[in-house]
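Dear support,

We are seeing what looks like truncated structure output for some complexes. This example has four components. We would appreciate it if you could run it in full and send us the complete token output so we can diff it against ours.
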Amino acid sequence: MKNFTIKSPLPPPALERLSYLYSLLARLETETHPPRITSRRLGELLSVPGETIRKDISFLGGRTPVQTGQPEQTEHPKTSPRTAAAAASREKGYDPSALKNLIGERLGLGETRTACLVGLGRLGSAILGRGALPEERRYRLTAAFDASINRIELTQTDIPLFHSAEISRVVREKNIKLGIIAVPAAAASDVAKRLIAGGVQGIVNFAPVNIPRTQGIAVRNISLTGELDIISAYINAHLAHT
Amino acid sequence: MKNFTIKSPLPPPALERLSYLYSLLARLETETHPPRITSRRLGELLSVPGETIRKDISFLGGRTPVQTGQPEQTEHPKTSPRTAAAAASREKGYDPSALKNLIGERLGLGETRTACLVGLGRLGSAILGRGALPEERRYRLTAAFDASINRIELTQTDIPLFHSAEISRVVREKNIKLGIIAVPAAAASDVAKRLIAGGVQGIVNFAPVNIPRTQGIAVRNISLTGELDIISAYINAHLAHT
DNA sequence: TCCAATCTGTGAAAAATTTCACAATCAAAT
DNA sequence: ATTTGATTGTGAAATTTTTCACAGATTGGA
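Here is the complete output from our reference environment:
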């Protein structure tokens, strides 16, 4: 008899909402405000109905690893027992810490990951200089790159800096799995190629060009103008969203 | 007999893809590369199948304003004539400029909009100092705010700067419709309230807190950590996405 | 001219996602 | 002890979104 965790495919929208929920809970955890929090309130904070939150949580498979060959449930198992996060105590709602841990475990957030940054312009510097919050420390920059030697020499930081020509080598050698692109539009595609050649598994791209996703590399394209466009379109359509 | 444009509700995912398509086309327009571009290639550039692109475009209602009381179509109008963007010439594929204009018109992108920026820290300064590209100029910053008088005095820019206490007043007086938040997490909610009080219709929030959308205000929440979380979750799930 | 290849536009089918609705559970008050 | 009011967890229904599949159109040869 094998021992496995239920792996429902976890719908992408649920995955994204749970990611947001994770950092929301991280914040809630510090504010000791309420001991527990209901699905409805979580939903309000995320602009989503409470039942969606509950459903998303249920995709996580609730109570930890499931054993096959366990004794069958009672006659009318219409409803399952509370999830670890909800049942940990005798109160209603979810315990922020427990829920955060459950999500972190299931979604593979949890341990600190290493990332690299490409581009030391204004935006790149802003990214480089952030990271006072504990939340931010879950992603540690272990290398940064720029195409300008000048800029590399002028930038003050503890993080090792390299020329962009070395992206692939350094990424491979340091086993970096995430890349952050903060270069001008014209350079972005080339940078992405180098990052992928080096073996990153995911890219966050802030350049105003779309990095298409290839070969199973996860990509998030973000641009201020793009976001403003979407908002303008929603306003124009008289729909409020996200 | 009235004269109106067909308004299908335009599904949110289509609206967002079309927004991206819009700026993609703006880029394509300058590169005179191919005279026309197929739905399939557009799809590749956006990591979406070609039929989705075509369907999205079809939501726009194709050929311009429709007159009621027009003579009925021929016997078998199974297929409609080409859209303006596709039919403008006798070739296949879409004309980037024509398609861009069609989308711009239907989505209300097109004219320049005014926006304001709150927060003159590293990220805020980066946003303030961008805007060399013509694309970026579609959104003009007409005011910026910070809670530190010191920083207001030190920041060099042509854009009028104000103290954060004045957000509501200035936004109202200048009739600013979009707000960009680049302040620390702790201040973000308060800033959002002021922006909304002043009458903005949409907010792009870069602080690592979720601004819930209220009263029909469109909101986009963006944070580096949040994006990295989503990517990590996708990697963890062995799914590549967006 | 006619054939082959390619591409758009779109109903209709399929798939994915959200919402509903309710049994089970719990806390608090009576 | 019971009742009342909230809340979770989740099948099932409803809705939304994507994909399919194909008619009609267009181009480029043979």
